[in-house]
C-alpha cells in the first residue's frame, strides 16, 4: 500500500511537473524579449517535455556571404569607416560570390573609395569591372572618370567618356564638370575653356559648379583677368552661353585669392565688398586670402581690421590666419606685438605649426638674433615636432648673412645627423657665405658635396658658383666651368650676366661682347640687367658713344631700361660734363614714368654743383611722378 501510494504520488508529481513545464514554455514564447537567465533555463524546460520551436531555414554559404558583403557596404562604406585594403578584399569577394550582390552595392563601394580620395585604388579595379560587366553601368563609369580626372589622367578620362557614349548613356553636367576639373588640374586651361564652351552644344548647360571649377583653374594658372570676365558673364548673361547663374562663394573666393596673389589688393577689396553686397557671406578661406595679401605688402593694420571683422561674424581664425599676421610682424621687427599675437593664437586653441616656428626664426634671423632662433629650433626639436628642411635653411642663411660660417656649418652637420636632407637652397646659402668670406675652396667643396647627397645642381647653383668665382678674381676658372659639359643645358640669362659682369669689371670687353652675342645664339634674349652691365662696362672704358648706341638698341629690341640703366649712362655723361645729355636722359626717364632714386638725385646734384650754368639747367629739369 505504501509502495502504491508512493508510486501514485510520484506519477501525480510527474504529471503536474509536465504541466508546469508546458505552462512556462508557452509563457516564454508569449514574451520573446526575455532575460539571458530565462533563455538559459529553456533547455531544462524543454527536457521536461516541451516541444522545440520550428528551426529557421538555414542560409546557403553563398547567400550568407552575400548578406555579409551587403552589410559591409550599407554600414561601413556609407560611413567611410574602412581601410582601402579591406574595401578591395570585399570587392574581390563581391565579384566571386553567387548570387552576386546588386549593382547598387558596387556603386556604393566604389563611390566610398573615391570619396576618401583612393582614386588609384578604383582605377586598379578597371579590368575586373570590365570582366564582370560592371562597366556597362553609367554610375560606375562616372566614378571611374572622376578618379582618372583627379589623378590628372585626362586622356584616360576622355576614353571613359567615349565608353559612356558607346553604351548609349547620356553624360550629365557632373561628367563634364569632372573633365573640366581634370583639364584644369593638368594645367590645360585652354582645353578646359574649350570644353566649357562646347557643353551647351552637347546638350548640357554649365551650372554654378562648372563656373566655379573653371574660375578656380584660371586663377590658379594666373589668368585672373579671364576669370573676372567669366564672373561678369555669370552675372549679366552677356556671354555666348546666355547662362544666368548666381556666383557662389567658390567663384568669388578663387578670384579674390588670385587678385591678392597678383598684388591687386584694391581690386580684391572691391570684389569682396561686391560679394557681401550680393548677400554672400565670406568664409574663412576668403578672409585668409585677403589677410595674407595685406600682410605680404606690410599692411598689418588693415589685416587686423579684417581679423576683428571675422570675430564679429563668429568665424574663428586658423593657423593660416595667425601665421600670416605673425609673418608681417616679425618682418617689421615688431617683436612685442608678435609675442602678443602668438599668445592670442594659443589662447584661441590654435596650436603653432612648424610653419609658425619657421616664421618666428626667420624674423629673428632678419633682425640679427640668430642665436635666439637657434634656441627656438632646439626647443622645437625637444618638443618632438617634425622639423623640416626650411627650419634648418632659415638658420643656416641667418648665420651665413652674419658671416658666421663655422656656426652655419654646425647647423648643417646637425641637419645631416638628424636625417634631414639638404636642398639646393641649403648649399646655395653656404656657398654664398663662403664666397663672401673669400673661402673659395670651401665653397667649391660644398658644390662637389651636393652630388654625394643626391642633390642635382641647377642654374641657381651654377650662377652662385660662377658669380663667386668672378667676384674672387677667378675668371678663367669661371669660364672653364661655364664651357664644361656640367653646364650644358642648365644655363640661363642670369648665368651669362654673372660672367659678362665679371669680364666687364676686369676690363675684358672683347670677351664680354663675345658672351653677349653667344647668349643670343643660344636662343636667350638679353634682359635689362644684361644691357645695364654692358652699358656700364662701356662707360667704364670711356666708350660713351657705344654705350649710348647700345641704350638705343636696347629699346629698339623691346627691352625697357630701368632706373639703374639710366643712372649708369647719366653718371658717365656727368663725368664728361655733358649736362644736356644728362637732362635729355632725365626727360626720357620722366616720359617712362620711372621714379628717380637716391643715385639719380646725387647725379643731378653733382651736375648742378660743377657747372656755372646750373640756373639754366634747373629750368630744363622735368617733373617726375610722385
Note down, in words, how this protein is organized.
The structure is a single chain. Among the domains are: 2-45; 65-294, Tetratricopeptide repeat domain (Serine Threonine Protein Phosphatase 5, Tetratricopeptide repeat, Alpha Horseshoe); 527-626. Helices cover 72% and strands 0% of the residues. It has helices spanning 2-30, 36-47, 61-79, 84-96, 103-115, 119-124, 126-131, 138-150, 154-166, 173-185, 189-198, 208-220, 224-236, 249-261, 265-277, 284-296, 300-312, 319-331, 335-347, 354-366, 370-382, 389-402, 405-417, 424-436, 440-452, 459-471, 475-482, 493-505, 509-521, 528-540, 544-556, 563-575, 579-591, 598-610, 614-620. Helix 13 (224-236) runs antiparallel to helix 14 (249-261), helix 22 packs parallel to helix 24 (424-436) and helix 26 (459-471) runs antiparallel to helix 27. The longest helix has 29 residues, at 2-30.
Amino acid at each position: 500500500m505504501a509502495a502504491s501510494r508512493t508510486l501514485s504520488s510520484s506519477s501525480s508529481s510527474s504529471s503536474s511537473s509536465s504541466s508546469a513545464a508546458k505552462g512556462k514554455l508557452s509563457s516564454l514564447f508569449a514574451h520573446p524579449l526575455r532575460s539571458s537567465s530565462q533563455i538559459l533555463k529553456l533547455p531544462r524546460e524543454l527536457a521536461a517535455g516541451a516541444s522545440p520551436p520550428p528551426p529557421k531555414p538555414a542560409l546557403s554559404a553563398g547567400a550568407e556571404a552575400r548578406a555579409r558583403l551587403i552589410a559591409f557596404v550599407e554600414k561601413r562604406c556609407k560611413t567611410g569607416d574602412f581601410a582601402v585594403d579591406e574595401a578591395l578584399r570585399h570587392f574581390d569577394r563581391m565579384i566571386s560570390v553567387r548570387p552576386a550582390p546588386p549593382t547598387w552595392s558596387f556603386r556604393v563601394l566604389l563611390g566610398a573609395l573615391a570619396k576618401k580620395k583612393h582614386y588609384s585604388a578604383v582605377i586598379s579595379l578597371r579590368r575586373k569591372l570590365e570582366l564582370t560587366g560592371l562597366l556597362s553601368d553609367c554610375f560606375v563609369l562616372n566614378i571611374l572618370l572622376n578618379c582618372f580626372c583627379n589623378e590628372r589622367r585626362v586622356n584616360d578620362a576622355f576614353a571613359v567618356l567615349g565608353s559612356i557614349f558607346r553604351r548609349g548613356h547620356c553624360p550629365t553636367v557632373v561628367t563634364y564638370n569632372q573633365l573640366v576639373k581634370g583639364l584644369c588640374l593638368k594645367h590645360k586651361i585652354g582645353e578646359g575653356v574649350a570644353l566649357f564652351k562646347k557643353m551647351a552644344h552637347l546638350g548640357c548647360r554649365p551650372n554654378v559648379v562648372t563656373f566655379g571649377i573653371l574660375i578656380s583653374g584660371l586663377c590658379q594658372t594666373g589668368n585672373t583677368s579671364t576669370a573676372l570676365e567669366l564672373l561678369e558673364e555669370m552675372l549679366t548673361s552677356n556671354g555666348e552661353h546666355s547662362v544666368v547663374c548666381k556666383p557662389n562663394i567658390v567663384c568669388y573666393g578663387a578670384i579674390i585669392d588670385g587678385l591678392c596673389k597678383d598684388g591687386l589688393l584694391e581690386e580684391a577689396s572691391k570684389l569682396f565688398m561686391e560679394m557681401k553686397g550680393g548677400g554672400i557671406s565670406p568664409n574663412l578661406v576668403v578672409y585668409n586670402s585677403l589677410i595674407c595679401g595685406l600682410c605680404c605688402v606690410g599692411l598689418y593694420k588693415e589685416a587686423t581690421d579684417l581679423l576683428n571683422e571675422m570675430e564679429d561674424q563668429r568665424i574663428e581664425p586658423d593657423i593660416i590666419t595667425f601665421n600670416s599676421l605673425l609673418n608681417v610682424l616679425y618682418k617689421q621687427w615688431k617683436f612685442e606685438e608678435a609675442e602678443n599675437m602668438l599668445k592670442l593664437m594659443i589662447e584661441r586653441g590654435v596650436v603653432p605649426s612648424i610653419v609658425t616656428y619657421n616664421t618666428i626664426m626667420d624674423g629673428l634671423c632678419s633682425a640679427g638674433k640668430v642665436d635666439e632662433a637657434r634656441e627656438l629650433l632646439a626647443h622645437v626639436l625637444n618638443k618632438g615636432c617634425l622639423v623640416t628642411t626650411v627650419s634648418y635653411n632659415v638658420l643656416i642663411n641667418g648665420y651665413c648673412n652674419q658671416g658666421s660660417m663655422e656656426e652655419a656649418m654646425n647647423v648643417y652637420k646637425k641637419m645631416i645627423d638628424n636625417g634631414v636632407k639638404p636642398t639646393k637652397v641649403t648649399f646655395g646659402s653656404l656657398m654664398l657665405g663662403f664666397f663672401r668670406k673669400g673661402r673659395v675652396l670651401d665653397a667649391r667643396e660644398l658644390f662637389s658635396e651636393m652630388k654625394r647627397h643626391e642633390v642635382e645642381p641647377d642654374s641657381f647653383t651654377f650662377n652662385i658658383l660662377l658669380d663667386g668665382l668672378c667676384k674672387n678674381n677667378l675668371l678663367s676658372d669661371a669660364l672653364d666651368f661655364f664651357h664644361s659639359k656640367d653646364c650644358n643645358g642648365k644655363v640661363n640669362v642670369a648665368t651669362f650676366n654673372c660672367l659678362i659682369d665679371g669680364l666687364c669689371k676686369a676690363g675684358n670687353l672683347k670677351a664680354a661682347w663675345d658672351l653677349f652675342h653667344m647668349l643670343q645664339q643660344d636662343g636667350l634674349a638679353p634682359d635689362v640687367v644684361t644691357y645695364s652691365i654692358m652699358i656700364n662696362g662701356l662707360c667704364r672704358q670711356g666708350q660713351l658713344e657705344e654705350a649710348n648706341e647700345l641704350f638705343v638698341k636696347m629699346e629698339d629690341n623691346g627691352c625697357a631700361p630701368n632706373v639703374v640703366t639710366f643712372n649708369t649712362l647719366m653718371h658717365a655723361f656727368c663725368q664728361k660734363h655733358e649736362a644736356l645729355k644728362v637732362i635729355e636722359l632725365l626727360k626720357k626717364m620722366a616720359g617712362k614714368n620711372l621714379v628717380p632714386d637716391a643715385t639719380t638725385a646725387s647725379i643731378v646734384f653733382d651736375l648742378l654743383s660743377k657747372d656755372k650754368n646750373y640756373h639754366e639747367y634747373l629750368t630744363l629739369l622735368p617733373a617726375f611722378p610722385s
